[in-house]
Design brief:
Layout (H helix, E strand, L loop, with lengths): L1 H9 L4 H41 L4 H7 L2 H5 L2 H9 L8 H32 L3 H4 L3 H24 L3 H8 L3 H7 L1 H15 L8 E4 L4 E8 L3 E6 L4 E5 L2 H4 L3 E2 L1 H6 L3 E8 L9 H8 L5 H17 L15 H14 L11 E4 L7 E8 L5 H18 L13 H20 L2
Antiparallel strand pairs: 1-2, 1-5, 2-3, 3-4, 6-8, 7-8
Length: about 425
């Protein structure tokens, strides 16, 4: 400062003006040096470091570079330069030092924030992150970090000890609990979800209350994001997964088979005993030949031993077309290449109702892929709907417009004939 003032005095500048002009020149010089140092650090040093980081065999430092941790550290350089030159302004040294302290505190918070984001990115590269996500814990740590950083900034500005401000926070605890209610509930929910392994990233969950039906793509402190099958995203509060019920399909995916549970409704008017011609025809069906022969011999032996009069169909035992159809479905599923044979497989009748007699197929496919599962299920029922008439059975459906036209057509034809005079 003295050198600049002496130089200005030698140039003929008045002594009163030279002081202000020297201060202005020094401030501009410090700003120029700070900006130059920042530019050199960011554009040259950081570029060299980034080139080395991208070319080495480690991957964790790439995430640190991606989150711009080093770029934010560059802000420390101008702060150090400004603090070093603060002694040139004896009357303002304390104020400049205070401002630099506040600036460095903010830079430290920003750097830690970026570093925590990089830490979460590194952690998500490991498979354990799907089972034990840490994003919620990092967000909680960030909240405390920002609170402490804010206290340090305010204490630096007012020139008071941070402990004084911390002691005052106790009186505001009720307000703090109200402000961070969702975060606290989310933290508790996150701990329970993780410790009980209730949901993971990648799980297929179904929660009709919130319109969620799809894969979990993110678990954070306050929310769980679900990408539905129509590619929309549903955001669910974390604590809702604890307080409300939801369905997790992870067990089905790990089991390797997805359940088919669908009924085929049979018109009960088409159910009846098998005639000898029907039995002879059923015996030629590939899947039923052995079953028909064994069943026929068993029934004949049963009726003969008990001397049952078979002139009446209601006496003794006899095969029914729906019973043979059930046996056919069971053997068809047993030989189906896409049905999981290690899981439950059965064909059963449900209670008869207004829509006929439900014949339920309960089996598991050998895949959990949605498109393949739907294709396998459709192929099975396509086949069963087509072969049901071969057993003398009629699949039930409510009368359609076509059925009504078919019923009314003979009457319409008779009316036309009467009008023509025939």
């Amino acid at each position: 400062m003295n050198s600049i003032e002496k130089l200005l005095a030698d140039l003929g500048v008045a002594s009163g003006t030279s002081v202000y002009l020297a201060n202005a020149i020094l401030i501009v010089g410090i700003a120029a040096v700070s900006l130059l140092a920042y530019y050199v650090t960011k554009k040259i040093v950081l570029r060299i470091a980034g080139h080395y980081i991208r070319r080495n065999r480690f991957k964790w430092d790439d995430y640190i570079l991606k989150r711009k941790v080093f770029q934010r550290l560059c802000h420390i350089v101008p702060a150090v330069i400004i603090y070093s030159f603060s002694y040139s302004f004896p009357g303002y040294h304390g104020l400049i030092a205070q401002g630099v302290a506040v600036y460095l505190t903010i830079v430290a918070i920003v750097v830690l924030d970026a570093l925590l984001n990089a830490l979460n990115d590194i952690y998500t590269t490991y498979e354990v992150s799907k089972v034990r996500p840490i994003k919620g814990y990092i967000q909680v740590f960030k909240i405390f970090m920002f609170i402490i950083g804010g206290i340090l900034v305010v204490s630096s500005l007012i020139g008071q000890s941070p402990l004084i401000l911390l002691s005052g926070i106790g009186a505001l605890s009720a307000v703090m609990l109200l402000i961070f209610k969702d975060s606290l509930l989310g933290l508790v929910a996150g701990v329970q979800l993780t410790s009980n392994d209730m949901v993971r990233v990648g799980d297929w969950i179904e929660m009709p209350k919130y319109g969620a039906d799809g894969d979990v793509i993110d678990i954070s402190l306050n929310t769980v994001k679900v990408q539905n099958w129509d590619k929309t995203i549903t955001t669910i509060p974390s604590y809702a997964l604890i307080s409300d019920s939801f369905k997790n399909w992870r067990g089905m995916q790990h089991a390797g088979g997805r359940r088919i549970k669908r009924s085929l409704c049979i018109d009960m008017n088409s159910v009846g005993f098998c005639t000898p011609d029907m039995i002879e025809r059923f015996e030629r069906i590939q899947y039923l030949g052995e079953y028909i022969r064994e069943k026929k011999a068993d029934i004949e032996l049963y009726n003969r031993e008990r001397e049952i009069d078979r002139t009446m169909p209601v006496n003794g035992r006899a095969m029914t077309n729906i019973g043979v159809f059930r046996a056919y479905i069971d053997r068809y599923l047993e030989r189906h290449p896409r049905i999981h044979q290690g899981m439950t497989r059965l064909v059963r009748q449900l209670d008869p109702g207004a829509n006929g007699l439900p014949l339920e197929i309960y089996a598991f496919t050998d895949t959990t892929a949605w498109s393949e599962y739907e294709g396998i299920q459709s192929d099975i029922f396509d086949h069963l709907l087509a072969v049901a008439p071969e057993f003398g059975l009629v699949v039930f459906q409510n009368p359609s417009g076509h059925d009504m036209r078919s019923m009314l057509k003979p009457e319409a034809d008779r009316e036309k004939i009467a009008l023509r005079g025939y």
